[in-house]
Amino acid sequence: YGPCYCDQACARTLDCCHDYAEACPVIPCVVSQWSVWSGCAEPCKTTYRVRRRHVIQEPRNGGEACPPLEERAGCVEYWTQQGTECKQSLIPALITTGGFGRARQKRAAADGNERTGYCVEFQLVAITPGCLRSHHSYTHWMQYLREGHTVCVECQPPALNSRSLHCYGDGSGSKKNQLLHWQAVGNPLCKGTWKRIRQLDTCSCPSVHSFLFI
């Protein structure tokens, strides 16, 4: 008798009002759709972009809690806010396994498109421990990254910029022995520095040390 207080603990203590289910219905959290992705947090470096959503209905009476309201994703912007192209030495190279490039070349051949590009040799200087903590099947290639080793990174379309005819982060225009930055695609904790050795028409490194600009 009397007013029904909406305290879901009554279900455990067995002292709910007789009309508890009708007076205190379970209402889950309701959120809006995701907003559009923002721009990169900073130009000329690997950072992140953000999208958000807001709460339309707060959960009540033991309803399902609200999901995360913000998501972040990796992002690289190659132009400054003033509209000028970033300096090559400031742009981190985004790399993935060379096997991805071979699959892409097969698709291109099936389409009848000719692919042209070049290869750059680098000496790995520093590597973060995160490269060895990659347990997903698509990140196993990161375990072959070793300090002091020479690696080959291929530049081919669509990463090959049609205007500048180079891949972003390939180190063109950098000074001799200048430390350049790279980051592995698929694991934001795997990154490091390397020194550009030379540019070649084709790669000559073993397959486990052959990579691809993204």
UniProtKB/TrEMBL annotation:
Keywords of this entry: Disulfide bond, Glycoprotein, Signal
Domain SMB: 1-29
PANTHER family hit by this protein: RPE-SPONDIN (PTHR20920), SMB DOMAIN-CONTAINING PROTEIN (PTHR20920:SF4)
Protein name in the entry: SBSPO protein
Source organism per UniProt: Corythaixoides concolor
